[in-house]
TrEMBL record:
The keyword Isomerase does not apply. CDD domains: HATPase_UhpB-NarQ-NarX-like. The keyword Kinase applies. Its EC number is 2.7.13.3. The chain crosses the membrane at residues 12-33, 40-58, 64-81, 126-143. This is histidine kinase. Keywords: ATP-binding, Kinase, Membrane, Nucleotide-binding, Phosphoprotein, Transferase, Transmembrane, Transmembrane helix, Two-component regulatory system. It catalyses: ATP + protein L-histidine = ADP + protein N-phospho-L-histidine. InterPro entries: HATPase_C_sf, Sensor_HK_TwoCompSys, Sig_transdc_His_kin_sub3_dim/P.
Length: 381
């Protein structure tokens, strides 16, 4: 069964409407009576006290009982004190229909009781009662609909908040797993290198040491054989050294791999810190780019990315590395607001100085966003 949730606005709505209706009842009593009716004022004060207790009741059961007592009190006042108390009945019935433990259908059934008091009201007051009941029910239904909609929106926001927390937790877990996998990969790589050194250089040095020990024993008794053993030890040692050289050469990453991977990591890290969408593409023979070229490219790209984040007002920035005929080209471009005239600051001047150290240049363009191009020559021209 779906709960008839009244929302937080209905109590305020009830209090405001009751205040208006009390004022209206007192006003009507004042105009229809030639003498002040002190008893009417007393009973209205009792009604106000009951409603104050309803609004302060924290226990749900006590709250429900007070609403029922309030309705019975209004019926009694309407029957024995003044028929104008009937004008307050629609508010009491709406308050009863809005109880949280009642379903929407039960609330509608309670509102069907609104025409009943009209059977006991005289015709002059019947018009006021009908208007009061119609306006009260209409405003109550509109507010209840809005409250239900707000409740659904709150529930949706809560669901989205929980999903976001779950995604953050998964991201954190995946990040920890990634760090653990990277550490495991490093351990495995260290273990593999240790095994290669043990199988190659370790065995070679052991064999050479055995040959040299044997040569030492035969040095005075059999010099030719001792010489052959020493020669074998030298050959084994050379072979072991060559194997170590090949192992280090095979495991050392190429300069272009180091430079490109470092640049990718820097661009991705910049995007994560600033919230910009970053991308990097490359074309051409990356092996032609020397470590010194990569250092200047990374410093200039980092400076250009920083300027784009500060001044461009763009949501995305792209980095492109190209190896041309005689130049290495690094382009950082965005689709921000740009500028018709480029004012050289310390950052752009520093980029030019770094490029000039290798005979290169830097070109800045402010049309259709900012574009900063670094051109560095390579090889013999």
């Amino acid at each position: 069964m779906k709960s008839n949730e009244p929302g937080n606005l209905l109590p305020l709505w009830n209090a405001g409407h009751k205040g208006i209706m009390i004022f209206f009842v007192i006003l009507m009593a004042g105009f229809t009576s030639t003498e002040p009716n002190r008893r009417l004022v007393l009973y209205i004060l009792i009604y106000v006290a009951l409603n104050t207790m309803i609004s302060l009741a924290a226990d749900g059961r006590v709250h429900r009982w007070l609403i029922c007592v309030n309705l019975l009190y209004l019926l009694g006042c309407m029957r024995y004190i003044d028929p104008q108390f009937a004008l307050l009945l629609p508010l009491g019935l709406c308050e009863l229909a809005a109880l949280p433990h009642l379903s929407a259908r039960q609330g509608v059934y309670i509102l069907f009781a609104l025409p009943v008091p009209a059977l006991f009201i005289s015709s002059p007051l019947l018009v006021f009662y009908s208007c009061a009941a119609a306006l009260t029910v209409l405003s109550y239904l509109l507010l209840r609909r809005q409250s239900i909609r707000s409740g659904k929106q709150d529930a949706e926001l809560e669901r989205m908040r929980r999903e976001l927390e779950s995604l953050v937790l998964k991201h954190s877990t995946n990040h920890e797993l990634l760090k653990a996998s990277e550490y495991t990969a490093k351990l495995e790589e260290r273990n593999r290198l240790a095994q290669e050194i043990h199988d190659g250089l370790g065995h070679a040095m052991t064999g050479a040491l055995i040959q040299m020990e044997a040569a030492k024993l035969l040095l005075h008794s059999d010099a030719p054989k001792a010489e052959r053993l020493l020669q074998n030890a030298i050959g084994i040692s050379k072979q072991g050294i060559e194997e170590i050289r090949l192992t280090l050469k095979n495991n050392k990453p190429a300069p272009q791999q180091l430079g490109l991977n470092r640049l990718k990591a820097a661009v991705e890290d910049f995007g994560g810190r600033t919230g910009l969408m970053t991308s990097l593409t490359h074309e051409g023979d990356m092996e032609r780019i020397s470590p010194l070229h990569w250092r200047i490219i990374q410093e200039n790209v980092t400076e250009a990315l920083t300027n784009s984040a500060k001044y461009a007002g763009s949501s995305a920035v792209h980095v492109r590395i190209s190896v041309l005929g005689h130049y290495v080209q690094a382009v950082v471009s965005d689709r921000g607001q740009g500028a018709p005239r480029i004012v050289k600051g310390l950052g752009l001047i520093g980029m030019e100085e770094r490029a000039a150290a290798l005979g290169g240049t830097v070109i800045a363009d402010g049309h259709e966003g900012f574009t900063v191009t670094t051109l560095l020559p390579y090889g013999k021209r």
